[in-house]
Structure formats: C-alpha cells, structure tokens
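Recall the central idea of this unit: under ordinary conditions, the amino acid sequence of a chain determines the structure it adopts. In this exercise we apply that idea directly, starting from the sequence alone.
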Amino acid sequence: MKTSSLFLFIIGLFICNISNSQTNQKGFTIIPLGVKGGLDESNLSAYLVKANGAEQYICLDAGTIYAGLQKATLSNYFGPLHDATEIQKKFINSYFISHGHLDHTAGLVMNSPGDSFKKNIYAIPSVIEVLKSSQFSSKSWSNFANEGDKPIIGKYQYQYLVPEKEIEVNSAGVSVTPFVLSHVKPYESTAFLVRNQSDYLLYLGDTGPDEVEHSSQLENLWNHIAPLIQKKQLKSIFIEVSFSNKVADASLYGHLTPNWLMREMNKLYLLAGDHLKEVSIMVTHMKPCVNCETNIKEDLQKANSLGLKLYFPKQGEIINQ
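Accordingly, the structure predicted from this sequence is:
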C-alpha cells in the first residue's frame, strides 16, 4: 500500500508540473479591448493580459468590453468562440480597475448583466468606494457587486488591494502589485505591475506628472521598477498621453502631455540607464479629438531625445511579449 501511495503521489506531482509548465510560459499575451481616452465610447481603456500559455485573462481597466471583444474575434484569438458575451464569461477571470472614471469602468458596468458570477474586482479602497457609490449603485445601475446599495446581486466580489503588496491570479498565470498614482490630487488612480515568473509589464491608469500634481507617486514607482529595467525583466510600460503639448498645465486635469511623459522618462532613465531604451513604451489614452492624435505623435517624436521605443496599441490587435 505504501509503495502504491508513493507511486500515485509522484505521478500527481508530475502531472502538476506539466500543467504548471504549460500555463506559466515566460512572457505575456496582451489584447487591447480599448485604447483611447474618451469621446469614442466603443474604444475606451481596457487591456486583457495573461501569461503566455494561460487559459484566462485579467482585464486592466474596463472602459470598453463588448466592442473590443467583437473586434478581437475577427482574428480568431479565442478559437471557434465568436460571441463577445460568451468570451467575457469564459476568458476574463477578473478586473483590475485603476480608478472610477467612466472611461475606465463603463464596459464592466454595462456588460455586467451578461457576465458570469463570482468574478473578482480588484482595486485600492478609494476606487472601490467610487464603484460602490456611483457605478454599481441603485441610483445609477443595479448593484452587481457584493457590497453597497441593496438589493445586492453579488455577481462580483470586491477585493481590496494594498499598495505595493503583490497578489496572485493563478488562472491567468500572473501576479499583480498595485501602486497609487495621483490623478488631480487628492483623487487616486493606480498603476499595476504585472509579473509572470521573472518577466514584468507595467500598466498605468490616468496620472498627472509629479510636478503638476505636487506628488511623489511617479517618483516612487520609477524607483521601484528601475532595478527591473536594469535586469532586463520589464518588457513594457503602458502609459497615458492624453493631450498634445498645446494644453496648458492648468488644464491637464491629472493627465500627461508628450513633454511631460518625456520629462518623467528622463527621470526614470537617470535611475535605470540605457536599458530603458529596450523597454516598449506603449502610449495609451490619447483623446481622439480633431488632429489630437496626430499632434500627440508629432510632439512625441520631437521630444524623444532618449530614442525610446514608442508604440501605439490598436484595439483588438494582439501584443506578444
């Protein structure tokens, strides 16, 4: 009996190791469901992320869900499944919400009736309070979460994140560490540092520059990720540039311009050195007003004295890193 039990135990470990190796391949699969910072409600901030080989995704912000999934299905990313609601149910494991503004939450709220039960919504406490009071609230929508206004449907479970404390999402093969950002002080936003084994990507929700926000939140974040850049572990930084350089600091309302992005990148460069040039800088949240995106891209090219690798994610187009 002892020999038989030992044999079964060894076989069990072998199967678990095979399963883990299949799930936890290095690198990330990223599908932008929405990339813009307003106006176009069919293309607002939302990014699916998983470890390469994992079955499910986490969703970093959720401004657009349905339209983004529809676009992604055109490339058969989800196999034979082409119904956006069924894809949301099956492939999105949980949601990480950077802050409570509608362009980062509307897709989650509007598509909640068709989603599956017992999914987690991860956010820092101040963001969950916004979701409870103005999003999943009987005043504006049915309360599909597990706290707040009655009646409570309980489809989603709020999970309160502790800044700079890592949590695991095993089905997506990743771990996530939140960092507080300033988005029109004292309003808080969040950056999410996503890890798969020794590989990392960084996603920032809306943020103003430290100097304008009278904050040190970005400085703290840069100090934390600089060693990862030096070790060539950080693959990409998803960071917003909402306006062109024509917008005055007083009218930024907690956002970045090309000049401010590059000033922040220069601070990071002083900490991380030349390896920053190997990191993909994914420019997000551009406001799609007349000529705005063209102006932002031109301003970025002029200000990119460091020669950073700038990319502009497109809705529904997969990114492998």
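The CA atoms of residues 59 and 95 lie 5 Å apart.
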